[in-house]
Every structure is written in structure tokens, then in C-alpha cells.
Design goal:
The complex is a heterodimer. By secondary structure, chain A is of the alpha+beta class. Chain A folds into four domains: 104 residues, Sulfite Reductase Hemoprotein, domain 2, CATH 3.90.480; 147 residues, Sulfite Reductase Hemoprotein, domain 1 (2-Layer Sandwich), CATH 3.30.413.10; 93 residues, Alpha-Beta Complex (Sulfite Reductase Hemoprotein, domain 2), CATH 3.90.480.20; 141 residues, Sulfite Reductase Hemoprotein, domain 1, CATH 3.30.413.10. Chain A has a five-stranded antiparallel β-sheet with strand order 1-2-5-4-12. A five-stranded antiparallel β-sheet of chain A has the order 3-13-14-11-10. In chain A, strands 15-16-17-18-19 form a five-stranded mixed β-sheet, covered by helices on one side. The N and C termini of chain A lie far apart (58 Å). The mean pLDDT of chain A is 95. Chain B is of the alpha/beta class. Chain B has a single domain, classed as Rossmann fold (3-Layer(aba) Sandwich), CATH 3.40.50. In chain B, the strands form two sheets. In chain B, strands 2-1-10-9-8-7-6-3 form an eight-stranded mixed β-sheet. The chains are: A alpha+beta, B alpha/beta. Chains A and B meet through helix 1, helix 2, helix 5, helix 6 and helix 9 of A and helix 5, helix 6 and helix 8 of B.
Chain lengths: 554, 203
Amino acid sequence: MYKYDAIDQQIVDERVKQYRDQTRRYLAGELSEDEFRPLRLQNGLYIQRHAPMLRIAVPYGMLSSEQLRKLGDIAKRYDRGYGHFSTRQNLQLNWPKLEDIPDILAELATVQMHAIQTSGNCIRNITTDQFASIAPDEVIDPRAMAEVMRQWSTFHPEFALLPRKFKIAVSGTKQDRAIVQAHDIGLEFYKDSNNQVAIKVWVGGGLGRTPILGTVIREHLEWQHALTYCEAIIRVYNMHGRRDNAYKARIKILVKALGIEEFKQQVEAEWAHIKDGPNTITEAELNRVAQHFEPMPYESLPAHDASFDAAIASNPAFASWIKRCTHAHKQSGYRAVTLSLKPHGKPPGDISSEQMHVVADLADAYSFGELRASHEQNLILADVKLSDLFAVWEKARAAGLATPNIGLLTDMICCPGGDFCSLANAKSIPIAEAIQMQFDNLDYLHDIGDLELNISGCMNACGHHHVGHIGILGVDKDGSEWYQVTIGGKQGNDASIGSVIGPSFSAEEMPSVVQRLIEVYLKERTDEERFIDTVRRLGIAPFKAHVYAEKEAA
Amino acid sequence: MSNLIKNNAIVADEWTRVIPPSLGEEVVKKQAGKVVLFKLTGEPTYSPEQIAATQIPATGKILLPLTVWQANVAQLAGRMAAGEIGILIATHEPLESLAATFSDINELPLIAVFVERFPDGRIFTMGNLLRTRYGYKNELRAVGDVLRDQLFFLKRSGFSSFLIRADRSAEDALSSLQDFSQPYQGAVDEALPVWRRVNRSHA
């Protein structure tokens, strides 16, 4: 993974110094609340219900074992001994003290980490596929480009105060796993007809209050122009985005208002002036960064391992974990492992300091000392030998990290919700826990099969509810908490936004609502159909009828 | 005491900013139940009546809103030639109209961009475009809600002077111009990104 040189280190060190002084001035009354807010947000610090929340950047989800240990130590020393992985592949601390943040940043800087631009109206952490470089369907490893873009976007002077937040995702696979269509800019790398790396550029996607999937603004962009083209897009947005209304300030609203043709014309006119300018990426720079992402020193191994095959045959629990929690690898004899942060009855995405140390040790022993965070809020050991999988499973299981539910109903995406977040309309974690307990039967879960259930505590959609096969949204009705249910949302190349099935439900009703949706699916599905396929084939009517039947009768 | 920063020092301000009078009450606009804080790009700033009622000092260096200049070109031509006129444009006013008003933008000894509220990042794009698109070479000043924590970005976006908000110390603000010593990306003050500036393979 990328290692800082003296220049990168100097920037994060200078940032610590700058933020320390900003905090000092705020505490001394020299900065008003309004003046401090954008400064602390651009450093990932929210003021929440109980305490500040600090969001620490995990660029494109890559972590070293050393960094994860440091995060575990920080969580123990400055927080309550746990952290929460978010859908932007970042780590959040729920209980730090505002006065301690400069010291936390100084600690992070010692392991090449920071909290720069993890919130605020600026370019946020760039996200990508958690299986980058190892996925069999990968065409281009997007991480070097993601790092080039991370550096370019860090303290970008022109885009320091945009109309609203700005999210970029990059992807280099045939099957999109980075939800590029749900980002302000999505860059999809591919090989063009001349076998050169090119980019399909998506713009104007986003979830939130007004969910819209992105539109292709340019089918073919040579990779050298990635930065200047993004600058042209963001410049047009910076000048013309709706600053008058925070709910209409995302780029998607501007793109819709102008229409993609007019928007594209403005972007291309802007780009004509800066194309081939100094921010054009050189082969030498891309190569310099790419050296940090060279393939791991893999052993050359056969595709099968006798001890592994024997363990699967004799141990059903291990076999079931292998089936759900490991993933195909480009390299023969290796697999990627997802460590589930979704044990039943615990807040999705949470991990304790002790677990962070266990995962770091696993990474060191079995996966070249590196790991990744996924936008589904799990951790990945990317490069595990088949012969090591049994040992990894035993250790992960002992630490509560081996629930075999990846891709299943209980592997849900869930925001911190009303228990922590001051934006939330409703709690989300207790809903997640209640649904997990309702479906706390692994055989039943495996029978239901692939299903993505996403929960957001408000329309800001941190829990990606619009693209969940089942989406749950917390809403406020006259001061009490209700839940609106959508079905038919999906991430990926054939992404879609879910449809609302009808009036919202109370928290107590939610487990049985999900239960009834599943009952319709189990009754109606054909042999190979996943939940999402059945919804797409039948539409929402039969699901709606069954869910509301009892309510009407009662 | 002046609150103007120029060339990394606090210097006296030779310019008098001319502000059209407010006639009658301002209408408070709302969107989605909230007071609108930012004007959209292209919205007018002053009414024709305000522009007509503007008092222009008879002598000295004056900083005029673009629309006031446009209404008084004939009377002020001599003072423009004498270098006594600077032009102020607000972050929501189109730069194109500034460029279209002057055959040579470098006739102006001073262009000021007025930012009513500091989170309005249009000021950065405007600085950038004035320097890189319109070729403006003289003093470019940030005025209005100008605070130290935005100075580094303003400097990088091509601004050469900064009139710090009156209730804040320009002395304190000076140090923020040096917040970062080696920024990553190319911008106005340093066009080259870091990888074209230094050899990072050995850094």
C-alpha cells in the first residue's frame, strides 16, 4: 500500500499544527461556532448527541496492521474502546473529547493517517472496490489513481468550500462494487480498443434526500486527464451549484436542472482551457505511485489444498464460513476473507480495540500485514493462502469476527442513527439488532440467500437505504420515530433506487415487516432467483399486499 | 490600524470602498424554511435606484462596484486613466461582465472580490479565473468576510492582498499564509503539482 514520503508526512504534520491552533482559538472564544464549524467538519469532527464524533480517513479503504493497532489504541485511550466503520470505508470514534482531537491527530500522523476532509463541503475520501488488485474480474487496479486523486484533492485551494459535500468513487472491475453511479463523480476504468487505460466518467449520482443515479458525461477519457477533467466538472459546480438551498446544493440537482447535454457542454468548454495543463498526470508520476501497489510476493500454489478440502468436508461450520466469507482471488491458491463486523445483536460495523488487535495480528500472520475496509462495513484480509484459512477461521471465530453471514440479510449496512447522530430522525441500530435477532438462524438465513438490507436513520442516507434490496429509512412523524420501507434497490452495474411499499411502520413492527417480505419471496421465488430478482420480476404489489394484509384486517 | 495584508505584511489601505446606499428594507428570502444566505451566480446586487443614488468621492483612489462603474463610465474616464479606480465584484456576479467592460483588464490597478460570507467558495474559482483565464496581473484583493483560516486557499487561488474582517487581527492572520509549505496540487500561485516541482522518487 501507499507509504508516505517526506512531503506527505510534512502535510499531515502541518495539518496537526494548524488544527491544534484552530481548536485553541475556538476554545479561547476567538472563533465563533459558525466560523469553527466548517473547520472542524473538514477535519471530520461532528458535534453529536452525546459527544463529538471523529471520522478518521481510511483512503480507499486500505489499512496496514500497524495503523489498525494504532486505531485500537486510540479508541482505548481517547474513547470507549471501540470504533465504527462507515460506508465511506472510514473509521468513526463516537466519544472523543473536542480538546483531545489535536492529540489524536498527532498520534494518527505517526502512522501516516489523518482526518482531512472526511466531512464538510469539500472533496471527501475517495472510495473504491474492497477487492481491488485481487478480484478475478478486475481490469485495472484503481488504487494508484485513487492515491493520485487523494493527493490532488487534499487541500485543493479552489474546491475548499464547495456548495455541498463531494464524493468520488473509482472502479476498475467489470462488476462494479464501488457504486460509481451513486457518486458525485464516478470514474470507471477500462481498457479501450487500443488497449489503453481509459475512463468512463459518471456524474451527478447520489443518495440522500433526492436519490439519483449518475449519468455518463464522457464515455472515453484518457487517464492522463482525470484530474483536469474533474477540475472542470467541479469548477462548473462550484460556480453554479445551488448555494441558496442546502437540500438542493449537490451537483446532481445542477445536472438535472441544466440537463446532461448543457452541463456537459459547460464542462467541456471549461476543460478546453485546462486540458494538458500542469495537473495532467504523467506516466512517471502514475508509475511512482503504482510502485506502492505492486502485487504481493505470492507463493506459487496449486488451485487446491488437501488439508483445506478435508476441513471443508468434515466441518460444516467451517464450510459455511468459507462459502459466505471468502472470495475468489486472481492468484491460484489464495482467497480473500471478509471478517464480519455484523454479529447478530451488535451494532453493524462496530469493532472493539481488542478485535482491532486480533485483526492486525491476523493480517501480519496471514495476509502480508494489510487489510481493507469495505463500504459494507466489514474488514477484509485480501491475500490468505488456502492452507491458512482454517487457522484464520478459528482465530476470527474466537474473537467474534466469523459470523458466516456476508451477503446475507443480517450483513446489513447501518448508519449510527439516532443513538449517536444529531442529524438522525430515528434510531437505526436497535432496528438492525431486532431484525438480526428475528433472523438468528443460520440455516434459515442461508436458505434466504443473497440479500442486502440497508438502514438509514434519516434521509441523508448514510446507510445507503435507497440501494438496499430492502431499504429502511427512519422518519420523524410528529416527534415520534417511524420507518419507511423500500424494496428493489440495488448497487452494481444494474443499480436501481428502491420503491416505497407504503405507509411507514413503528419500530416494534419492523422485524415482522421484514419477515413478511421474506415470506413472499420464499413462496414466489424460482430456483435460481435471489430476493432482488423476484422483486424485479413481480414488482412490489405482492409484497405490499402481504405486508399490509394483517394491518388492514386489524 | 490597517487590516490589509499585502506582500506578507500589514500595510496602509490607500483605497476607499464605495458602497451604494440601502434604500428601504431588505427582503429576507427563504428556501425550505431557511433564510437564504448566498445569492445565486448571476443575481443582481444593487437596484438601478441604489446605483443612481451612490455617492462617489471626488478625489482619491476609490474601489467601485462594477455596476456603479458601468453607470458612470463617462464621468470617471479621467480618473480611470489616472489610476484612481479599482473595481469590486461580488462572488455571485459573473466575471464575464467584468471582462466585457474593459478592453484591457490590466488597465485596472486593483480588482477586489467581495465575499459576503466566508463559506462561499466561489471566491477561489473567481481568483483562479481572473489570473489564468483573463490574464489579470495587478493587485487582486479579497474583501468582506475574510478570515485567516481561508487565507492559504485565497493565496493559492491568485489573491495578492487580503482585507481581514475589521473585528479580527490581521497580525494574527499573517501566519496562516504559511500553513502548508509544499502543497500537492498545481494552482495559481504555484502552477506545478508537487511531482513536477520536486523529484519524489527520492524524497
